[in-house]
Each structure stands twice: as C-alpha cells, then as structure tokens.
Task: structure prediction
Amino acid sequence: MESLGHIRLTPGEDGLVILDQTQLPNREVCLELHTAEEMYRAIKRLEVRGAPAIGIFAGLALYVLSRPLASLPYPEFREKLRSLSLYLNSSRPTAVNLSWALRRIENVADGNSDKAPAEIIPLIRAEAERILDEDVAMCRAISEYGLSLLKDGDGVLTHCNAGPIATSRYGTGLGPLILGAERGMRLRAYADETRPLLQGARLTAWELQKAGVDVTLICDNMASAVMKEGRVQFCFVGCDRVAANGDTANKIGTSGVAILAKHYGIPFYVLGPTSTVDLTAKTGADIKIELRDPEEIRSLWYSEPMAPAKVRCYNPAFDVTDHSLITGIITEKGIIKPPYVKNLAALF
Result:
C-alpha cells in the first residue's frame, strides 16, 4: 500500500488518521478516527474531502469497521457491513467515488460468502489497498495527459481544490501544474478562492505554494478580469461526478468559470479518474446536489456575521457544468473529447 500523509491506518489498524483539511493552511492537525460516527462526521464536515480522497477513505474505513465483526456468522457480518456502508454513503450525496468505493468493498464480501468473516476481512483490506494504489497511478496518468497540453509560461485558472490532499498524490485538476513544477516548467496558476468554504484560498494556494508553483490567489468574481487580460490560457478543474452525456458536477461556481472561458475562447478541461464517471446518470439533471448549512455563507469565517440575522441563504455545494462548455475530460485513459455519450461509454 502506498504511504499517504493525509489518509492512513493507525499502527494497530483499529482506526484512521487524517489530515484535518478544515484547519489548513494555518494549522496542520491530524485526527484519529475509530468509530463509524467519527468517520461519518469527517466526511460530512469536510475534514476529509475531494472525491478520490473520499473514496480512498471509505475503503479503508470499512476495513477498520469490519475488523470487530470477525467472529460473527456470515449473514450477520454481511448485514452489519451493509448497514455501515449505507451510513457512510449518506454523509455526502454528490461525489460518486464514495458509493463506488463502498460498493467495491461490499462486492468483496458478496464474492466470498463461502468464507468466514475472519477470512474475508484481510481481503477487504487488500481491496482498500487496491483503491488507493489505483488512485496513485490514475493521478499520475491524468497529470501526464494534462501536462501534455501545457507549455512554458502558460497560465492556468483552477476552481476549488483538486490537488494531492483531495486525492492520493499529485491530484487531478492541480496534477499537471505540480508535475510541471517537478520538471522545471514555468507555469502560472490562478486559484479562485472558491466561496463559501474557501478551498481555493485555504487548500489550493497552500498546495501549489508548497509545490513551488507560481500561484496567484483571486476572488471568485475576478476570474473574468484575469481571462480578459490574457493571463489565462487554460482552465483546469476537478470533478465529483460526470454524467453519461459529459455534464459534470463540481464545486459551486465551476459552471460560471466554464461560461466565462467559453466567452473568452479559453479551453476548459475537467480532470478526474474514470471512477467519477456515472453512466447511470444520463445527464447532469440526474445528479443530486448537496445543500449545506447557511451559516457557511452568513458567519463561518467572520468574527461577527456579515449578513443580516435570519436572512435566507441558498447554499448548494456543487453545480453542474453543461457538456457543451467542456473542451475535454482528462482521465487516466486519455483526453476524452465530444461526443461524450459515445466516448465516455467506450471507457468501460
């Protein structure tokens, strides 16, 4: 198993250790999680976040939670595993990697129903390892394909956070920038702050700065200005779910960036592993969008509220970018171009 700093098993494998992303960039704090409730809250509160990272976390979480069930008869073991999986899956509805990883672990139990739970649990650990190791390889491949589009001096605008802490290593949307920096390329990044949770300001700027990338932080409503000024040659964003027709769910504000890019003639690419492609969602209208606490807008980052008390707030966590605005979808299998219905289906 690849060793990760931000998601890993405890030494006794009775819990998980995660880097608490809610405390970045000011504090690098790790949390130790042992119960299903703690793991649920970690996903819900965005202490662990990023679609691929959530998938990795989910696989390891089910392994940890399955270990105390080793002495149960198989039917009872299977029912408790299903219940734990459903519980974790209910924490966030939009990112498909969560349900995808949990289903992979459940499939291990289903495919070994002739074995005792004590024999199945090591197989669950092995499957969780595969999810992690596959993501490391996928991130590297996605980064290579994305970097192939860039040349020295290019400016890349990104929205939200799709870097190493949102995945396993390199990241998706940030991967080409980080890989390029490793190879001595001079690339410029423009990171939207990404209201209301400021993933761009807190996480993307932090990761790119640590990687030695020339990064400039901008407010979300400055994206049009930097595009108009010719500072941006590409837009690279991650994704939480891709529908069969190429419509893509990503952090709220992504669709606005895509619309601006279309207006200014800037290529707009979505980067993510094939595990984020959900062929059961025919279009973006089939993707359930998570609604979050209004206080994230009203008061979260302020010493006192910056909006009138009790004002109504609408706080969707994601929006859907129409496939017509997307130049290409960069996966570990290559750069997918329209027609997306045909070319995404051909990935599987």
The chain has two domains: 7-139, 143-345. The first strand starts at residue 7 and ends at 9. Residues 143-345 form a domain with the Rossmann fold fold (CATH 3.40.50.10470). The CA atoms of residues 79 and 210 lie 44 Å apart.
